[in-house]
Amino acid sequence: MELSGPLYGLYERRLLAALDRERIPRHVGVILDGNRRWAAAFGSSTEQGHRAGADKIEEFLGWCAEVGVEVVTLWLLSTDNLARPAVELAPLLEIIEHTVADLAADGDWRIHPVGARDLLPSRTAEVLKRAEDSTRTKPGILVNVAVGYGGRQEVVDAVRSLLAEHAGRGTSLDELAAKLDIEHIAEHLYTRGQPDPDLVIRTSGEQRLSGFLLWQSAHSEFYFCEAYWPAFRKVDFLRALRAYAARGRRFGA
């Protein structure tokens, strides 16, 4: 049975007070899933579902700031999504553009787009660039907005960048192959220089990553929540943090 009213508030406060502050994840990745199914459940349009999901983002970032999360990665649009019919993709891109612009205007977050920007419409790519440039020196949470993102595409782009860099230095393929290691690839990922995600949350009940942060999530903890993203509540987030804190991380050992 779900709690409501004063009981819900009491439960939320108890969860927050019981958090182990020494075991808060530095980096939280989120697969924001379930917008369309949430809309269908309420007899609303897909566009209304995406708008409701977008409205949840700033609230979620506030929860992260409250507990001390340093980096958040939000998967807003996959490379697969770019193949959707124009009648659905166009309003979704517009929602993403407004959402990113609003987050930048808030002044509370550092926006860092991750994804294949060359695959995006020029207007969307420009909105992402402006948001990144205007928030570069902001002190708040680093927010990776994954737009036109795919885990396999990221690895391909990293390898291309690595090869181009070494070609510019005059390094032969044999020389590069002889010294290539994990860190060489990591230095060319979209999230280079950032900590890998400690916790990855997926909403809507689906229990798969779908390629999200494919390289970076090798040692991440995963939390799958039944709630659709627009209905994701603070108690759901706090439960995810509680589950994360209770786990013994072994980092592959």
Describe this entry's structure for a reader.
The protein has helices spanning 5-18, 35-41, 46-67, 86-106, 122-135, 151-169, 173-179, 182-186, 234-246; strands at 27-31, 71-78, 110-114, 142-149, 199-202, 221-224. The mean pLDDT is 94. The chain has a six-stranded parallel beta sheet, sandwiched between helices. Helix content is 48%, strand content 13%. With 253 residues, it is an alpha/beta fold. The chain has a domain at 25-151 and 196-245: Decaprenyl diphosphate synthase-like (Undecaprenyl pyrophosphate synthetase, 3-Layer(aba) Sandwich). It has nine helices and six strands; from the N terminus they run αβααβαβαβαααββα. Helix 1 runs parallel beside helix 9 (234-246), helix 2 (35-41) packs across helix 3 (46-67) and helix 4 (86-106) packs parallel to helix 5.
